[in-house]
Amino acid sequence: MSRVFITVLDAVGAGNAPDAAEYGDQGANTLGHVIAARNPSLPAMGALGLSRIPGTGYPEGGPVRGAYGRAIEKSRGKDTTSGHWEIAGVPVMRAFPTFPDGFPASFIEAFERAIGHRCIGNKPASGTVILEELGEAHLRDHTPIVYTSADSVFQIACHEALFPPEELYAFCRTARDMLQGELGVGRVIARPFIGEPGHFVRTGRRRDFSLPPCGRTLLDAVKEAGMASIGVGKIEDIFAHQGLTESDHAAGNPACMDSLIGFMKRDFSGLCFTNLVDTDSVYGHRNDPVGFAEALEAFDRRLPEMLALMRSGDLMIITADHGCDPCDISTDHTRETIPILAWTPGLAGPVDLGTRDTYADIAATCAEWLGLPERFGALSFAEALRGAVKPE
Fold this sequence. Notes:
Elements: E1 3-9, H1 30-38, H2 43-48, E2 67-71, H3 80-87, H4 105-115, E3 120-124, H5 127-141, E4 145-148, E5 153-159, H6 165-178, E6 187-194, E7 201-202, E8 207-210, H7 218-224, E9 228-232, H8 235-238, E10 246-248, H9 253-264, E11 270-276, H10 278-284, H11 289-308, E12 315-319, E13 338-343, E14 351-356, H12 361-369, H13 382-386
Parallel strand pairs: 1-11, 1-12, 2-14, 3-4, 5-6, 9-10, 9-11
Antiparallel strand pairs: 2-13, 4-5, 6-7, 6-8, 12-13
């Protein structure tokens, strides 16, 4: 029985994307800048090889027993959907559309007719800033707030006292059905909030409504082979609920880590895919390197507990989906490589995985580890890991 655990530290990029300048992100380095600015204590990830990933600047403090490397994104874009799909073996070769000037008036008018409410906003904005700007008008006039960002998203913010989350989700499903073709954004996002003017707070009942993956993913392959394919956090949203046998839509890093550990205590064969979102949504987009560093430390403190639950034949991969440099002037995602840390019981590291040409090498590795034939047009590093495992 083999189990594979992929954990995505959302937005924890490792800098040095060869094409960063094409995205206006030259010099972005999420991990490197946070480590330089805050010097977080990350001994568990350090022992897996974090210090040896080029550009992170994390000091080496002892023996390295893991496998380490980084991967370049082949997909066009720098968002959650394309990053996760490529990790699962499906690069997005045509970028999802973005709307720097807001969505077409004709679409907004049709959407308003469909949901029976006038909307306000319709521009790129920070989620917290737009609540400060339009939250009071929203409360007064019962008008959903719609907005976008540099990413391919259509976001709808509603106060839970006016529009309960289930009603907001219905608005999002309507938008998802309408946003196809040239308007086919990667995600429609429900952004419920509470509070009073000057003190609005987004709640943990966010939901993402994604397009279905544009190809057969690792999740599909695992499920079709009769194994468990488990999602934790917003994985079910990112993959439009496809390829999963079970899911826990836990909200926030502490709850997601608790859920992951719960699954690690269970007997199953297959995949557990976890997203830890706080480094992105709570700290990266808000240019908060202090909180970002603390979130990394919080994960690192739980990592020994996770590693202790690994069984012979298990594989853990810790990675990211893009960057979101909190030390950068922008609040948007950044085009970066992603770190790869891998470990299996008995691994006699260090194992240098180098710089991979695509995130999909992770999918190829996991498929080979689970005995599946798929390689997703990528190169597995499973043999390098198995070759470094000490015989029992």
